[in-house]
């Protein structure tokens, strides 16, 4: 009986990251340069310097028995979905600089800097911060990630990232609840409890730490016309990975549009989701309705309801609804 041979591991090299996959996942041509730039951005945001040795990231397929969407440790990480890649990279950056912190701080910063959905960026948590911020390692679960991310955004906007990093450095992965609380008190002072009350009482602002970063995303002008690439592994404008049977990997585009005045726009899309986010510090939930936080293409060739966009910088994200089918988007200004 012949022995089965393991699948070959393909490797892609960047200046700050080396990406591998033994499961047939091929990154789009723009992915490695984007991840290189994102790593530098994450270091700048955290107030640290990048290591000389590149991080290592393995891309895996999601399986039914996968306990996690990814895991990072000691300069290396794996991820099972495109949306979890930046989360794990954030772990690599903070771990390489400051080691492992208490769960609410570790997962809070990793989730806060790489939101998976605009809705998760707004609105105060249903839980009081004291119900999850001081949880020990064995008590902290996946249901606490978004809570911790919202609290992280709130604390960074209120106190600054350097004070948040101070709390991160003082709390450790195996700290007791009392030690974690002491780290919060040491970094933020006795006023942290008043801050918790304020967080509970009103929606918090979204911290757009990278979606509006001009060094990471190209700027475009209307009208915008985008079609799915024939082979995104050869197209440097797309990030993600080639479409496959696994819906967790797909090519997508992010770009910025600067509006000099209030503008009416409309999107015509086929098999594509269009998300727009304002880059101003607006609070409340939802931040903007009805466009863009919805699928503007529920059927092929559907047209969204015209939307009024305020002057300023806006972030757009284009992704397919069914990654195995062609998709297209036309965004234009109405007269």
Characteristic key phrases:
single chain; 335 residues; alpha+beta; Jelly Rolls; 2 domains; five-stranded mixed beta sheet; five-stranded antiparallel beta sheet; 7 helices; 13 strands; 27% helix
Distance between the termini: 71 Å
The number of helices is 7
Tell me the strand order in the biggest sheet. Answer: 1-2-3-5-4
Question: How many structural domains can be distinguished in the coordinates?
Answer: 2
Shape: globular
In round numbers, the mean pLDDT is 86
Report the helical percentage.
25-40%
Query: Helix and strand string, N-terminal first?
Result: EEHEEEHHHHHHEEEEEEEE
Q: Could you name the ranges where pLDDT drops below 50 across 5 or more consecutive residues? A: 285-300
Output the radius of gyration. 21 Å
Structural category is alpha+beta
Describe the structure.
- A hairpin with a 2-residue loop joins β4 and β5.
- This protein folds into two domains: 10-201; 224-333, Jelly Rolls (Sandwich).
- α1 packs across α2 (82-98), α2 (82-98) packs across α3 and α3 (103-112) packs across α4.
- The model is unreliable at 285-300 (pLDDT under 50).
- The radius of gyration is 21 Å and the shape is globular.
- The N and C termini lie far apart (71 Å).
- The chain has seven helices and 13 strands.
- With 335 residues, it is of the alpha+beta class.
